[in-house]
Specification:
alpha/beta; single chain
C-alpha cells in the first residue's frame, strides 16, 4: 500500500465515522462534508494546479473511501473545492437526477427507474467500479448462540411475519427473548442489497430500528444482548471491540472471502457513477474522479474494504478517459 503523504489512518477512520450519518434525514439536515485543501508543498508546486468545484453525494458505505480520497486529493490540488454529501445510495441518485452533483457513490447497481429518470432529465452517466464490500451481520458480544447463521435462518429472522419473534423461534435451544433489530434505512443501497439477496423482496421486520447513520446501528447492537444488525464491512472492523461478527453459511467475511465471492451472497461491488458532461466540461471533476480511480483501491484497503484487481482500475481509467 502507498504511504500517504497527507493522510494518517487515524484521520481516515475519523473522517469515516463523521460521515456515518447517511440518509434522507442527514440530507434534510444539511449533513455533508466539504474539504478545502491545505497549501501544497514545494514538491507539488511543479505539478499542474487546477481550480474549480466538484460535488458528489450518495452511499454511506462508500463514504469512508471517498472521504479518505478527498483528504489526500486536497494535498495535490489546493484550489479545487470538493463537496461530498452522504444521503444514502438512493438519496444520492435523487440529487444526481436533479443535476445537483457531478458524481454519485453507490453500494448497488443503479435501478431501472433511476436510469429512466436520468434519461428523461437528459443526463448521460457512466458506472465505474471502486471496491468490494461484504455486508456484515453483527450481534452483541454477549450473544453466544447466533455465531453462524444460514441464509435461510437470516431470512427467518428478518422477514416480517406478523408476530414478535424470539430467538427461540429460530432455534428452540436459543434464548426465549425477543429479537431486537437494527437495519440501514430504505434510502441505503445496503438495505436494497440485503432486501434482494436475503429478504427476496419481502417486508423487513416491522419492529426494526432503521437509520441512515451506520454508527447509530453499531451503538444499538452494542447496547443490547438480543440485538442483531447489518452494515458495511468497514464499520464492523472499526467497531469489532464492541460487536461480534456472524458467519453466513459457515463463511466469515474477510478480505479474502469477500474478494473471492466465497462470502456469498453478501459480497458486493461498490461504485461511483459519473455525469458524462461533467467529465468532459469540468476539468476539476474529471481530475478528481481520475485521482479516485488511481488511489481508491489503496484507500479502500486502508479503511477496511477490499480493493479491486489492478486491471479493473486500468479498465475504469480507460473508460473515464473516453468521456473527455
Amino acid at each position: 500500500m502507498k504511504k500517504w503523504k497527507y493522510l494518517t489512518m487515524t484521520a481516515v477512520m475519523g473522517s469515516a465515522l463523521m460521515l456515518g450519518a447517511c440518509g434522507s434525514d442527514s440530507a434534510q439536515n444539511g449533513n455533508n462534508t466539504e474539504t478545502n485543501a491545505p497549501s501544497s508543498s514545494g514538491q507539488d508546486a511543479a505539478d499542474e494546479k487546477l481550480q474549480g468545484a466538484v460535488a458528489g453525494d450518495g452511499s454511506s458505505t462508500v463514504a469512508p473511501i471517498i472521504e479518505a480520497v478527498v483528504e489526500e486529493y486536497a494535498g495535490t490540488q489546493p484550489d479545487v473545492k470538493v463537496s461530498v454529501g452522504v444521503s444514502g445510495t438512493g438519496g444520492g441518485f435523487e440529487k444526481f437526477i436533479a443535476g445537483e452533483t457531478d458524481f454519485s457513490n453507490a453500494s448497488r447497481h443503479i435501478k431501472d427507474e433511476e436510469k429512466a429518470k436520468l434519461e428523461q432529465a437528459g443526463i448521460a452517466f457512466t458506472e465505474l467500479p471502486l471496491a468490494y464490500d461484504g455486508i456484515s451481520v453483527v450481534v452483541n458480544p454477549e450473544n453466544d448462540w447466533a455465531k453462524d447463521l444460514t441464509v435461510e435462518q437470516l431470512k427467518k429472522i428478518w422477514v416480517e411475519d406478523g408476530k414478535a419473534k424470539k430467538w427461540s423461534d429460530i432455534d428452540p435451544s436459543w434464548p426465549d427473548e425477543k429479537i431486537v433489530y437494527y437495519s440501514p434505512g430504505t434510502d441505503s443501497g445496503t438495505y436494497d442489497y440485503f432486501d434482494e439477496v436475503i429478504l427476496d423482496g419481502a417486508d423487513l421486520a416491522s419492529s426494526a430500528t432503521l437509520s441512515e447513520d451506520d454508527n447509530m446501528l453499531v451503538q444499538g447492537v452494542a447496547g443490547d444482548k438480543n440485538a442483531i444488525g447489518f452494515f458495511g464491512y468497514a464499520y464492523y472492523l472499526e467497531n469489532k471491540d464492541k460487536l461480534s461478527i456472524v458467519n453466513v453459511d459457515g463463511v466469515e467475511p474477510t478480505n479474502k472471502t469477500i474478494e473471492s465471492g466465497e462470502y456469498a451472497p453478501l459480497s458486493r461491488p461498490l461504485f461511483v457513477y459519473v455525469k458524462n458532461s461533467a467529465m468532459k466540461d469540468n476539468e476539476a471533476a474529471y481530475d478528481f474522479i481520475k485521482f479516485t480511480l488511481e488511489n481508491g483501491g489503496d484507500m479502500a484497503d486502508a479503511v477496511g474494504y477490499v480493493s479491486l484487481p489492478e486491471d479493473e482500475y486500468s479498465k475504469a481509467l480507460k473508460t473515464l478517459e473516453g468521456l473527455k
